[in-house]
Amino acid sequence: MAEYSLTEHFEVKGDWFLPEKPDRTLAGTLAYDGRRLTLELNDRLQPLQGTVTINLGDPLPRHAVVHGITTRGEAVTLFDVWQEGYRIHSSTGGVRTPERLGSFMAVIGGHVTADTKYPEMRCRVPALEAWLSQRTIQPRFANKALTLVADDQKSETTTTQVTDLRWETGTDASLDAHAASLKTQGYVSLAPKEPAPLSWFLEQLLKVTSLLTLLAGHHMPADRLMLTGEALRQSLSVIVIRFGDVNCPYTNERQFFLPRSALGDSFGKLVEQWFSLYAKIQYSCNLALSVMGESALWANVEFLSLMQALEGLHRAMYDGNYMAPSEYDTVRETLVRAIPGTVLSAHRQSLVSKIQYGNEVSLNQRIRGLLDALPVALRKPIIGTDAAKPPRRWIDTRNYYTHWDEALRPNTMAIGEMHKASVRLKHLLRVLFLHVAGVDENLLSSALTNSSEVSQRLIQLNAAEERQQNGKRA
Questions:
Q1: Domain map of the chain by residue range?
Q2: Closest Cα to residue 238, out of 103, 109, 128?
Q3: Which of 77, 101, 294, 366 could hold 107 in an S-S bridge, CB 3.0 to 4.6 Å?
């Protein structure tokens, strides 16, 4: 069976049916364009019967699973399928109602269900071979001839409470009469303690790729997913939409923020700690990484989203209260009772809501608390000025765009300043996530001044601001 890549578009013809109605098969074409799967059928999976009344706003038909067999003989399963539309045609041949269906996920190679369990998933991650810092292709010269040799493929296993992860490289070769090539690929395989459904593997993969993205300094999505294992007759390809993730282009370990070689023996402990921590920080982490991986965001949207992720990280890690919640209960009740009876009902509800959250510390204190968790050696190159506290303009800009308080407007940042602040915020978030996951502060400090693309942006920004400050002193 062919292996399908998430970055390669395809179109296949076949026969399609619902698992509960295998006798009704319809010809159709399945197309994948990187954004979704679209199935064009010659008729409806569920035919119209009798008099049908369709009202605007009626829910569209949905199917948990749709099965198919392509003209290549491959079994296909589409999950969470919805109807995008259909037409009614009546002519000399009778009535036809061609239907278009959409989906975001499919398994190619078998007819399965959402509950089907698998022993392992093998994921190819572009640039992982470079991040793993293993040089597997060696040139050899002899008698004026060049020979390329693929060394023995090395693998490493890290263990967490829920799964073993096997990191390895493999070599793809192509050869014909006039051309030859060797290409090393990086893979990570997820092997749970016992077989698990596809949804479980995708959840664990998100943990893996988020950690890799933080370490690499560039998004590190998988581009090929294969369900494997001795219990399966053959491997199954998984197609799942990546929503804009771009493959990492790095080919040398010096391009990464923290390559595998820099982590040494601490790597296994880091993976284990990240898996244990992820449930607490996943929403703030996903928000931060979605911004870091997007190059077309407007500066104000980018800045505000990064500040939101920073606040979310503090809320996930710390309680963020001025006093113990039990002590504040008395204060809250007192304040609510003090609201005058002349206050209208809607106004009263608004005041009660504000009092309800009156025990939460301010954004300034939240970010300052995060900075306090970092050594000065890490804070100084990231913040750039007073490393003990967040720049006041960051806080006022975010609060102005959130509350539109005109008193804050004079201290809000211009678009160019927001862009520079976002460079620092991205580094702050990256370092904070890795620091709480247990990466040594000396490693992080070295990474902030290395030759990686992301660190060079910060170095250039600090150098420019230092020249500007020296010019003012002169």
A1: 10-48+59-108, 117-256, 278-320+361-473
A2: 109
A3: 77
**Cα-Cα-Cα-Cα dihedral of 293, 299, 305, 308, to 10°?**
130
Q: Which residue reads 């982490």 in tokens?
A: 285
CA distance 116 to 197: 5
DSSP state of 2: P
- Other CB atoms within 10 A of residue 441 CB: 14
- CA nearest 223: which of 4, 6, 8? 6
Residue among 33, 40, 36, 34 at smallest CA distance from 68: 40
Cβ neighbors of 278 (< 8 A, separation 6 or more) are: 207, 210, 285
Q: pLDDT of 87-105, one tens digit each? A: 776 667 766 788 999 999 9
SS (H, E, C) 328-381: HHHHHHHHHHCCCCCCCHHHHHHHHHHHHCCCECCHHHHHHHHHHCCCHHHHHH
Closest CA to 304 of 398, 417, 411: 398
* Per-residue confidence band for 469, with pLDDT thresholds at 50, 70 and 90: confident
Query: What are the φ and ψ backbone dihedral angles of 238, each rounded to 5 degrees?
Result: -110, 130
Distance in angstroms (rounded) separating the CA atoms of residues 310 and 303: 11
> pTM for this one?
0.88
DSSP state of 321: B
Q: How confident is the model at residue 85 (pLDDT cuts 50, 70, 90)?
A: confident
Alpha-carbon separation of residue 31 from 38, 224, 375, 403 (angstroms): 5, 17, 52, 45
* Tokens coding 52: 């049908």
Q: How far apart are CA 429 and CA 461, in angstroms?
A: 17
Contact 447, 435 (CB under 8 A): no
Q: What's the first-to-final CA gap in the chain, in angstroms?
A: 70
Beta-bridge mates of residue 239 = 106
Q: Which candidate, 225, 259, 265, 227, places its Cα nearest to that of 242?
A: 225
For 158, the token pair is 């890290």
| Dihedral sign, Cα of residue 309, residue 310, residue 311, residue 314 | positive
Question: What DSSP letter does each residue of 201-245 carry, written as one string?
Answer: HHHHHHHHHHHHHHHHTS----SEEEEE-TTSSS-EEEEE--TT-
Write out the two tokens for 322.
């001025």
∠ CA 390-256-6, nearest 5°, is 105
Tell me which residue of 262, 259, 219 sits closest to 130, measured CA to CA.
Answer: 259
State pLDDT tens for residues 123-137: 999 999 999 987 666
- What are residue 417's DSSP bridge partners? none
Residue 348 backbone dihedrals phi, psi, to 5 degrees: -65, -45
